[in-house]
Amino acid sequence: MPEADPKLFKEGISFPHGHLAYAHLEVLNQSALSESDKDQLMQEVRRCFKTKYTQGMTHEIDRAIALINEGVFYHQCNQTNGSKIRNESINALDHFHISGLLKRLQEVMFFFPEREDLMNAYKKCANQLNECGL
To answer: What is the pLDDT along the chain (134 residues), one digit of tens a residue?
Structure first.
């Protein structure tokens, strides 16, 4: 999936492969299938996407973790440098960007629960919001 998709320019740190995979789960969850059928199909979606798109998903995750570890919580894919958010200067827009990043991180965490670095990046974002408050 190209990161040059104009719709993603303003989203910030994104996971196009992860979002696509998670959208499949949302469709299943909204279906009229039984809970056991939903569970079985969700496991299959998880397995299939991890098998087919591991390289793309891993690249997206590694890139995001590197940015987050540098203190960059919002980075448009057409930027050369990310925007570092500092505790003393957070505003409502920064808060919105970090909250959106947390949602996107949760989506990929469903597929890679074993990645401690991903969980640590999530915690770093959550801590940033807790420390800043609005």
So the answer is: 455 554 544 567 889 999 999 999 999 999 999 999 999 999 999 999 999 999 999 999 999 999 899 888 877 555 555 556 655 566 788 888 889 999 999 999 999 999 999 999 999 999 988 877 65
Cα 122 to chain centroid distance, Å, stands at 9
Strand positions, DSSP E, 23-104: 72-74, 83-84
- How far apart are alpha carbons 103 and 99 in whole angstroms? 7
| This prediction's pTM | 0.81
Q: Which two three-digit tokens encode residue 73?
A: 């919580």
Structure token pair of residue 34: 């039984």
Smallest Cα–Cα separation from 57: which of 48, 68, 44? 48
